[in-house]
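Quick log. Single chain, no ligands specified.
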Amino acid sequence: MNIELKKLELLNFKGIKEKTIEFGKETNIFGRNETGKTTIFDSFTWLLFGKDSVNRSDFSIKTLDKNGEFIHGLDHQVTGILLVDGKEVILRRLLKENWVKKRGSAEAIFSGNKTEYFINEEPKKEKEYKEYINSLIDENVFKLLTNPMHFNVNTSWQDRRKILLEIVGDITDEEVINNSKKLKDLPGLLNGNSIDSFKAIIASKKKKLNEQLKAIPIRIDEINRNLPVLAKNVDYKALEVERAAIKGELNVIESQLESQQRVADDFIKRQSELSVKKNKLKDLELQIEKDSMKSLNDMNMKLMELGYKKDTLERKNKQDTEIIAKNQDEIQKLQDEMQKYRDEYKVVFEEPFNEPDKENFVCPTCKQDLPKEDIERQISGMLANYKSNKLKRLEEISNQGKWRKAKVKQLQDESDRLNVTVQNNEAELAKLDEEIKATQAVLNAEKNKE
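-> predicted structure:
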């Protein structure tokens, strides 16, 4: 089966708002750290298997705000267009939030996420979708082909060994035995059994003998307690000789078992060493083949990376310069407003209290003349209100001016910082231009050699 990836479309996926990637026969995706390279790979593995590129199924794809909180109400989706044996297949996986409005409640409550699956825009159940993906390619085979880290990080040592032996070929017991003179007697000991079976037999025998050895003192003690009183004519020396002979036989059996165990261990060790040497030989062959290739691809890649760095720095300088200009316009606007508030503060501060004429002062309600003590009280109240209102107005004007002063400082600090960044980037751009020229010259020289 021939499978080609033609297009990926990402919507609100791990911080990428919207992106479409067209794939050709060879597509290079590169950039700085944290710029989204892994996210693109994660989107493809999530589309197929619901996992990220390091085999995690519990990773989050939802978009976060500046405080690191989920932005609710968004659909998170990846669409992939494949060519399967020349036939176009459209896969789509959609994660959406589920909001439920309980009875008697005016607001809907978030009750979790749900995933929807589509094949050629036809809705599918999760089981149907997984069965279709599995019919295209086995998940483990896909990850071994697309992720160099999957073999070493996510695969157990038993499965790694199995895969390597399938690639380089297994090693027979006969090959290991013929490779060492010490193992020439092993086939007779094995008696048709495999190494693992033979080890199990030896371990079982050893365990049984150890159990018997542990039981001997107990049995001796039990027998001694139950022994009848022997006659005086018993030949104890003969019994001791027989006992020593039996003990010697036990020692011989233990020695044989230990010898057989050492032979088996040596066989396994040599088998492992031979496997390691075969792997090293394969690595050396691959390295020789790699080293024999020309360096044109490396230099082309370097030029692409240098060009990308240059474009990035130029875009950054342009953005920073625009921000500096915008900040200066805002600073000028704020300084004009600060001058306006200074003038207004001065006018309010110098504004006098217009004391009313005591001789012609009348009640503001009934318009009748008031007693003298009432006039004094009314005027005192008016003066107090005047001072309170004046103080309040001056404080408001002062607060407006202080806020604008702080904002000017903030904008100026940002502009100063960006100016330093722009100067540093200009120096870096000059170095990049020199490096690009030098690399291009070497590349041209290599091409001319051909």
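The two ends are 38 Å apart (CA to CA).
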